[in-house]
């Protein structure tokens, strides 16, 4: 039974490891260009940053239909996982002239391609050190490494050029990097 549960947990982690969460502030005066291009399976979270009633509502012709309903209050959120490739124009039903945009969903690249999702890891598999290569001008909020059981085994608020992984037992891990509200995760193998 434990083996089946661990296998199920592992498959769940594998399926979410390539997904990214995108955070958008949602308030009057945002404009009509609140646009994002994301991958299939990514999540968008709209966070209310004022105390007025707003909606996040898909428009006619959207690849996916979604509607948050009326939500009021600073700090309230609405999230949507996008699963269909295509264009998703949306607006606040109460403030369409000052709160609107488009979420463009594209097919993601292969999970095995470590160049996807904005950063790369080398070497992978690793024996003692890993290098994390980021696009220029990316500010890192935090770096975390999790084992297959979901236990955090590493944390840093700064990115080192070389991360020492010699103390980790051999196996599969997930490294998550947070940058300006976006969380990106990749698999790494420690040999």
Automatic annotation (TrEMBL):
One Pfam family linked to the record: Por_Secre_tail
Record carries keyword Oxidoreductase: no
Domain Blue (type 1) copper: 35-106
Domain Secretion system C-terminal sorting: 121-189
Domain of life: Bacteria
Keyword terms, alphabetized: Copper, Metal-binding, Signal
SUPFAM superfamilies hit by this protein: Cupredoxins
InterPro entries linked to this entry: BlueCu_1, Cupredoxin, ET_Amicyanin, Secre_tail
Signal sequence region: 1-20
PANTHER family assigned to the protein according to its UniProt record, in alphabetical order: BLL1555 PROTEIN
Record-linked NCBIfam families: Por_Secre_tail
Protein name: T9SS type A sorting domain-containing protein
Organism: Flaviramulus multivorans
């Amino acid at each position: 039974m434990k083996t089946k549960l661990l296998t199920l947990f592992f498959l769940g982690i594998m399926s979410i490891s390539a997904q990214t969460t995108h955070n958008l502030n949602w308030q009057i005066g945002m404009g009509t260009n609140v646009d994002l291009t994301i991958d299939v399976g990514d999540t968008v979270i709209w966070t209310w940053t004022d105390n007025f009633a707003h909606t996040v509502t898909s428009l006619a012709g959207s690849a996916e239909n979604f509607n948050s309903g009326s939500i009021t209050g600073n700090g309230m959120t609405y999230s949507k996982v996008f699963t269909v490739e295509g264009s998703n124009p949306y607006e606040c039903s109460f403030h369409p002239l000052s709160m609107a945009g488009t979420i463009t969903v594209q097919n993601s690249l292969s999970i095995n391609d470590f160049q996807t999702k904005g950063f790369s890891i080398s070497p992978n598999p690793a024996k003692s050190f890993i290098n994390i290569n980021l696009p220029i001008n990316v500010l890192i909020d935090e770096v975390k490494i999790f084992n297959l059981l979901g236990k955090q085994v590493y944390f840093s608020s700064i990115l080192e050029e070389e991360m020492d992984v010699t103390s980790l037992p051999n196996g599969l891990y997930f490294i998550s990097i947070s940058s300006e509200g976006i969380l990106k995760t990749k698999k790494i193998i420690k040999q």
